[in-house]
C-alpha cells in the first residue's frame, strides 16, 4: 500500500479540510496487528487492525487495478509468517495465488496445501462424504453438501432436487470409501444403486434403514422418464464439474490428504480456481464446497475453550463466487467472530452481490477498506465514513490508495487513508 494522508480532523463539509479529514492516527491505531498502510503526514505511523479486531471481519471493495490484490497478498503473507492459519481463494486468473507462491517463506512449505489445476504431480484430495473427515454424522455431511449445491445452482434447483440429492448423499455417506464422484452413478444406474442402497440400509438401525429404503422405493417406482427429468438439473452440472481432472482428483478418491481443522490451526490453504480453466460452475462449486468444509471446522472450534482457539483468516477474492454456506452469511460471520476465524471479503462492485450478501457484509464485516470506487458504490458506502469523508473522496482516491474504516477495541472509529 502507498502512504497515508492525515490532516487535522474536520467535518467533510469544511472546505479547509475537504480532501481527507482525519483525526491523528496515533490516537486510534496501535502499531503491529495487520498493517494496511503507512502515514505520510507527520511520523510514518503504520495503520492497521489488531488481531482481535480482525475477528469483526473485513470488506475490501474496489475495481481491478486499484491495489486489492496487493493488499490481500500482504495480509496473507503476514499471517503465514506469523504462523497463523490462513486460506485464500482466487477465482480469476490466479495472479494472487501465483504471487503468494513466489513470496511464500520456505519455512511454510510443510504447512502448505495448494489446490491448482496446474498441479498434477501430487494433487491434494478431500473426501467430502467421509464423516470422520469433518467430525460429524452422515446426516451432517449430506445436509451440508446439499445446501451448498442448492445455493450454487439455485436457478436450476427444482422442488424435488434437494430431497433427491440429500438422500443420495446420505446413502453414500453411510458407505465407507464412497465419494462425491459416485453421486451421478447412484442416480443414473439403477442396478448399481440397488446394491449400494442395500449395503447402506443393512448397516443401519431398523428405523433409519426403513426410512432410506422407503425413499428409494418411491424413487424407483417413478417412470424412468420422470426420474431422468428430476435428476437432470443436478447431474448435468455436477458431471460437467467432475469431468475436470482437478475436481475428480480432489473429490473423486476415498483418501483424504489434508484437514480443514489443521488449516485453521496454522496451515496454509491456497485455492487457485480460475473460471477460464475449470469453468464458472467448477469455480463456484469447488470453492463453495471447500469453504463449507472450512466452516464445519470453524464450528467444531466451539468444543475448544475460547482462550485456546488460535486465530485464523479466510480470504475470498471475488467473494460472491463462494458465499454459499449451509447457513446464512450473516449468521456465519457472527458466529465466526467468537470462534476466532476472520473473513476478508473482497470484490469489485456492489452489484456483484445478492441482496442477502450485501446486508450480511454491511452489518457483519465491520472493518471496511475502500479503493477508488465507481460513483454509485461511492454514494452507497459514504454513509460509513461521514462526517469525515464523503462519496467524492472515495471517487478521487488514487491508484493503490485506500480508505480504511476500522474497528479498534471492539468499536468503529473514524477512517484513515493509506
UniProtKB/TrEMBL annotation:
It comes from the Bacteria. This is Type IV secretion system coupling TraD/TrwB family protein. Transmembrane segments: none annotated. InterPro entries: P-loop_NTPase, T4SS_component.
